[in-house]
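Form P-L/3: holo structure prediction, ligand (Z)-L-Arabinonhydroximo-1,4-lactone.
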Amino acid sequence: MSTDTARAATGAAIIRNPVLRGFYPDPSILRVGDDYYLATSTFEWYPGVTVHHSRDLVHWRPLGGILTEQRLLDLRGAGDSCGVWAPDLSYADGLFHLVYSDVASFSNGYWDPQNYLITAPDIAGPWSDPIPLHAHGFDAALFHDDDGSCWLLAMSADWRPGRERFRGIEIQRYDRARGRLVGDPVTIFTGTAAGYTEAPHLYRRDGWYYLVTAEGGTSWEHQVTVARSRALFGPYEPDPAGPMLSSVGRPDLPLQKAGHGCLVSTPDDRWYLAHLVARPYSPLGKCVLGRETAIQAVRWSADGWPRVDGAVPAAEVPAPELPAHPWPVSPPTDDFDAPVLAPVWSTLRRPATPDWVNLHERPSHLRVHGGQSPAGRQRPSLVARRVAAARCVFETVMEFRPASHRQVAGVTGYYNVDNWHFAYVTRADDGRRVLDVLTSDGGRRRCYPGTEVDVSSADRLGLRVVFDGPELRFGYDLGDGWRELPVTLDATILSDEHAARVVPGEPEAWGFTGAFAGLWVQDIGADGGYADFDHATYREL
Ligand code: 6LW
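OUTPUT (holo model):
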């Protein structure tokens, strides 16, 4: 038995995958001293680019997100699954460097993936104004070479009909002192037969440059491909043993879609791969939890290739021999006593600013000023958190006095503009305050007979959404205990697979995010409506 296996057998230190549960895809991992950071994609949600921190690779704590203000990111009008793709964290000259793509479109063969760089002396900021890089392709990443030179890698997109849209990985010099790209881009790798070559990260070890890429597309065929070269510009030779990691052809594995990876080493030269996975509810079924982040142990072969045991994602991985560093467990209830939203919260398409997300106007409450209708992409008022387990409950107590049918508030199981379930309160034409359920499935609304409840008597109304694997139910509490609304809903419409619309040859919509549970307030007539939430609780069942 190897030392690692023995440690795993004794339950000593084990990395349990996924380490980040729920929608945390496209990880970039970085070590600075004894601190490890994971940055993940956020698409149309603020804060843009979520960061988690660890001292032992086992325990991770959320630090919130980096792109918290419109100065750093403007998501007004962003399409579903557009916005922030594939961040890359690096460290040089005493500065954290964060590169990210803000993808404005992807349709009909086009992307508009504007890449930006920001820097900060501390992971907590303050972050510089964004430096626009190029928009040649997404998944941009910096490589700081040993001689002090700095390079921008990215996938390279081709809009021309009939061409390979993923042209390969290009590299271009970045002048850190002058803050701009210099020289011409060079394509250094066009990938293997798996295709869709993207997500480049470059490392240097024992005289080799190692190029880690993702291939096969970010779904069941996803994989991590490693290629190496003696020279920066190549030629890069892919590992003759095949992909470093993939779950393709192994629907029996609990962790699927393994790909989009990034390497890190400990101070004693142990290597790990952070990568993307998904946990479908049935083999190759719907992924309501979105794409998540996992970590694998990496061994270097005698001839110098980084490998993962069996080249498949393991659910449990021996941890490095580092002092255990657990973090305080965050309580399930947020009483909204803090002056700012806790790191678990996200907001849709606009940052959490006090003009609409207010923790002061009514002490110990979250006041959410209503925003646009569910179709509005400029000013929606949705405060939500990731669904991180197949079975969980999200509940709140709401006070809401709708002045008309145009004021609507409640709890939602939400995927994107087209796919959501909503238990909402509004005002009926006869003046009653009513609770009801509405679904949007693929952009088509659906309501249910017999679900309306008169809640006029309850100034404080308990509301909850229960995710029970493939089923979703709403409940309410008028002050005398929880009751269920009499309809069982399909939770799997809140999945990456359901959101994606791929007509032959042409993806029309992608599902890159994952399900959220949230507090949603609509003031469709812009009359100044708001709702107060006394607390919100998230529990796994
Ligand atoms: C990510 C890229 C990808 O940036 O999906 O299909 C993007 N490819 O690697 C969104 O996760």
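COMMENT: The pocket of (Z)-L-Arabinonhydroximo-1,4-lactone is lined by residues 25-26, 41, 85-86, 138-139, 198-199, 214, 217-218, 260, 512 (CB under 6 Å).
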